[in-house]
Design a protein that fits this description.
single chain; alpha+beta; Outer membrane efflux proteins (OEP); 2 domains; 4-stranded antiparallel β-sheet; two-stranded parallel sheet; 13 helices; about 15% strand; Outer membrane protein TolC; TolC-like; transport; porin activity; efflux transmembrane transporter activity
């Protein structure tokens, strides 16, 4: 039984299109550029903005990872500032003034004894007069001395800081950036695989539409012959007019199906031309194909799961989560930095500013307003979640590989089994045509035989398309999409060759 995927592609040919311009495009298909599948494959990368965007994303992540390589280097910065300042100094002189007065008094009182006896009276009189003047002299000295200055300073400076130990924060950041590159590359590879599947869908979808157009045209031509035979039989009195009308109705239905097939073929050609960015149109040359030989065992495709984009992306996401654990642990550890500063205008510096300064700073957070334990526990949970997601991704990919492998095998067997059905349908139509012409079979039998042949041909087209599309899906899921051209080259059944 044909899968819904292929039947959907085939039944699109039976949809009624409202645009009359499509008929003109179908008529002008000869002007479209003939293109083999290999040539279309060579163009899909340049024609896909999505792939170009993935390339830019990979390049951006690589640049960011490269930027983290210099985190251990010193940060040197230059700054310049113009400062206008005012400074007021206030000095209390009360204590020093009292001490000076007491010391002077003691000195004067001892001074006469240091002279001869004849001079002591004279010196005593002098010291008495000086002592009497001391309160006046020291009273002139204020109790508080104030000094105020105002100036404008231009201060250029060069500063440097270099991390010596960050508790593992820098290695964690670098590991996270590297893992982000792996994520971007996995997305790029996945996008490339999807683009190949889209090309197979669009390219061979046009071939499906062309095959349906060919099949419906043959059916219409057959009914034209049946109608001509029926009219001759009616003229000879062999069959009544009612049988001619039955053939006429069937013939008109075949014409409508042919018109719809033409419209759908034009739509498929336009879709392929837009996919490949070919405004002039594209005419697919490579026919639908089937390999009569079975595929390699499904285990061959499952063995390469680790190389698939989904598994690689999941592993990279786990590495990012692991780097988050390292970053959370670094919050528990000390940090050490070397620093230095040089004043490039020492002649115009503030009095308290050094000419240069250099040293090492060690910092350890004793108490943080951010709960570091819960942060570390959350990072570990995220790592476990990422590890589980990576394991689940592998299981999902394995399931998809098995499902796709079965679809390919089902389509292959269905296509081969339809060979005998097609031969029987053609022989039945031949017998019914002869019987009808001899007046031995009703027109309904002839119409049914023609419909059976058309249905069998449609199922065969659907089986071939299902095989090609399922094969592309299998190879994309197992990240072997480049092998599609190998299967195409060794195909021994090509449906388009039967036109």
């Amino acid at each position: 039984m044909t899968s819904p995927l292929a039947w959907h592609a085939v039944t699109m040919a039976a949809l009624v299109c409202s645009s009359g311009a499509a008929i003109g495009q179908s008529i002008n298909d000869r002007q479209s550029q003939p293109l083999s599948f290999d040539a279309a494959l060579a163009r899909i990368d340049d024609a896909s903005p999505g792939l170009s965007g993935e390339d830019h994303a990979v390049r951006a992540s690589e640049l960011i990872a490269g930027a983290t390589r210099s985190l251990r280097r010193p940060v040197v910065s230059a700054s310049a500032s113009v400062i206008e300042y005012q400074k007021t100094l206030s000095v209390d002189l009360t204590g020093p003034k009292d001490n000076a007065a007491n010391a002077t008094t003691d000195f004067l009182s001892q001074l006469p004894g240091q002279f001869p006896v004849g001079l002591q009276q004279i010196v005593g009189q002098v010291t008495q007069r000086v002592g009497a003047a001391l309160p006046t002299i020291f009273g002139a000295i204020p109790d508080t001395l104030q000094y105020q200055t105002r100036d404008t300073v231009f201060r250029p400076a060069v500063t440097a800081a270099m991390p010596l130990y960050t508790g593992g924060a820098i290695p964690a950041i670098q590991a996270g950036a590297d893992a982000a590159v792996d994520v971007a590359r996995a997305r790029q590879a996945g996008g490339r695989d999807v683009s190949r599947v889209s090309l197979v869908r669009g390219y061979f979808g046009q071939q499906v539409a062309a095959q349906l157009t060919h099949s419906t045209r043959e059916t219409l031509e057959g009914f034209d012959r049946h109608l001509a035979d029926a009219k001759k039989l009616e003229q000879n009195g062999v069959i009544p007019h009612a049988r001619v009308l039955q053939v006429q109705v069937a013939r008109d239905a075949a014409e409508r199906a042919y018109v719809r097939a033409q419209l759908e073929e034009a739509t498929a050609a336009d879709a392929l031309a837009r996919l490949l960015n070919q405004p002039g149109g594209v005419n697919a040359l490579t026919p639908l194909f089937v390999n009569s030989a079975p595929l390699p065992p499904v285990s061959v495709f499952i063995d390469g799961i680790d190389a698939t984009p989904r598994a690689r992306g999941a592993d990279a996401a786990r590495d990012i989560a692991r780097a988050g654990v390292g970053l959370a642990k670094s919050r528990y550890r000390p940090q050490a930095f070397a620093f230095g500063s040089y004043n490039a205008n020492r002649n115009n510096a503030l009095p308290t500013e050094p000419d240069w300064v250099a040293g090492i700073s060690l910092r350890y957070t004793l108490l943080s307003n951010f709960d570091r334990k819960k942060s570390l526990d959350a990072a570990r949970e995220q790592e476990r979640a990422a590890a589980d997601a990576a394991a689940q991704a592998r299981k999902d990919v394995a399931s998809e590989i098995v499902r796709a492998w079965n679809l390919v095998e089902t389509a292959r067997r269905s296509f081969l089994l339809l060979d005998s059905n097609l031969a029987a349908a053609r022989e039945n139509l031949r017998v019914q045509r002869v019987s009808f012409f001899e007046g031995e079979a009703p027109s309904s039998s002839l119409v049914d035989a023609e419909a059976t042949l058309a249905s069998t041909q449609t199922q065969r087209i659907a089986a071939a398309y299902e095989y090609d599309l399922a094969l592309a899906g299998l190879l994309a899921t197992s990240h072997r999409v480049d092998d599609f051209t190998t299967y195409l080259a060794r195909a021994d059944r090509r449906l388009g060759d039967e036109k």
